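lol forgot to send this yesterday, sorry. struct tokens for the thing we talked abt
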């Protein structure tokens, strides 16, 4: 058996480069209502999936954010397939293949409409098991929450979001407007020790300009969240990295989020030793295991004969 890689600062071990027989990750195109979205797909190598996890990246990134470019042991796609889930990471509208069609991007309601058509196409094209979960980061989290509020009959099973809150931290809006590039870098990444050494060189192909319309929606998100949150009914799990700097995530902020999401089962957790770009850091595997365990637990509660928990999933770190 090949030894595991032990990251610094007490992070859990991750599989070494090229060690496990990972399920293949394939580039795909999903077409719905004339919109073509590129993405990455990975499915279990044997048997049908428990469910489909559709992953939505943040602003200025692409679907490869969820595939651990600096270290494959951090990939959500291969881990999800290993644990029985089909995982599809999409380039959101305005990114990847659809960038030429939407050079300025789309508003959140428009992206939600595209997502609904895309999920319909995904259900026709792929085996989705018990149904579809959304796992989303940062601006992708805004889209996931918007979709959960605006498309309540879409058959969505649940939403897991990292790097997205409801109220910006001091200085964040200035960085978002592009007035302080150095500060924006720190908001996105945090301490370098939180990431594998090759992260910033291997992630160059993932980084892309943020469409103009997304900047406007990002700035108005605090008001939009308060309007949308009461309409969400599916389970929601929010994770804030220890070194998250874009969002307020103190006890008061967390209480406000829980209050706004009063109509949904909600969990708010903290991920130690992590920065905003959580799925690119050493803590990615821990976060992904917790997210997949949450999905499996939901399936077990509704289909006890067909779903089981994720083995050895780390215990969450809840807010008080």
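and heres what i got for the seq, position by position
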């Amino acid at each position: 058996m090949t030894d595991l890689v032990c990251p610094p600062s007490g992070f859990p071990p991750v599989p070494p480069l090229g060690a496990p027989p990972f399920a293949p990750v394939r580039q795909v195109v999903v077409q719905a209502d004339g919109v073509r979205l590129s993405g990455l797909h990975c499915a279990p190598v044997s048997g049908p999936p428990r469910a489909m996890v559709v992953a939505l990246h943040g602003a200025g990134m692409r679907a490869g954010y969820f595939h651990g470019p600096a270290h494959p042991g951090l990939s959500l796609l291969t881990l999800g397939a290993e644990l029985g889930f089909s995982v599809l990471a999409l380039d959101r509208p305005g990114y990847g293949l659809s960038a030429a069609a939407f050079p300025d991007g789309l508003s959140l309601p428009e992206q939600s409409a595209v997502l609904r058509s895309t999920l319909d196409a995904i259900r026709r094209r792929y085996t989705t098991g018990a149904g579809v979960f959304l796992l989303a980061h940062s601006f992708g989290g805004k889209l996931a929450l918007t979709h959960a509020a605006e498309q309540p009959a879409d058959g969505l099973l649940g939403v897991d979001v990292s790097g997205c809150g409801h109220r910006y931290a001091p200085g964040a809006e200035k960085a978002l407007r592009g007035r302080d590039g150095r500060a924006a870098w720190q908001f996105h990444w945090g301490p370098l020790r939180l990431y594998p050494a090759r992260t910033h060189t291997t992630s160059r192909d993932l980084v892309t300009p943020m469409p103009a319309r997304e900047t406007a929606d990002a700035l108005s998100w605090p008001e939009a969240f308060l309007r949308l949150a009461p309409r969400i009914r599916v389970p929601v799990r929010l994770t804030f990295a220890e070194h998250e700097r874009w969002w307020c995530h103190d006890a008061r902020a967390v209480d406000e989020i829980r209050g706004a999401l009063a109509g949904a089962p909600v969990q708010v957790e903290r991920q130690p030793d992590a920065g905003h770009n959580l799925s690119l850091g050493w803590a990615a595997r821990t976060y992904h295991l917790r997210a997949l365990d949450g999905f499996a637990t939901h399936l077990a509660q509704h289909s006890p004969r067909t779903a089981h928990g994720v083995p050895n999933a780390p215990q969450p770190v809840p807010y008080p």
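The longest strand covers residues 35-42. anyway ping me if u want another try
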